[in-house]
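name: query_chain
kind: protein
chains: 1
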Amino acid sequence: MNIIILNGNPDAGNKSFDRYIASILKELTGRGHQARAFTLREMNIRYCIGCWTCWIKTPGECVHRDDMPAVYKAVMATDLLIFASPLVMGFMSGLLKRANERLIPLIHPYSEISQGECHHRRRYARYPGLGLILQKGADTDEDDVRITTDIYRREAVNFRSSLRATFLADRPVNEVCNEIDAL
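structure:
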């Protein structure tokens, strides 16, 4: 399976989270998966400005000239896209949110009914399954994890996909990789 992890850890000092992601990648690669991560804090990712150019003037292509085209290409070629972040004030990091918002060129501006609701049409025939890796903070409670999981479950609907799993970064790497193997 081809797996991409978007590492939204904004704090280079939070080495435990980065080591956890590196361990997941090493284990997945050792199991025969093609796995790699984008460390978002090391990338030039501009904020979405809501201009809708990616939908109207240059369909599927953002006006910003930054590092996101490499992410788009990898996302659309992967089987499983994992959003990874420490929970900051009960939510994913702003860095991961910024990258997440910049994925909008991958969907179509027009809507249709999907699962009994109005959602964006597909731009592409195939989208990856989604996953989450979350690191709890000292102030994190189960509601924070549930709310973040629900947000990504909803994101998966727009991707015509599903949120396949949510993992907490305190779980053993081999257990997480066993569950990924089973997806």
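note: The longest helix spans residues 142-158.
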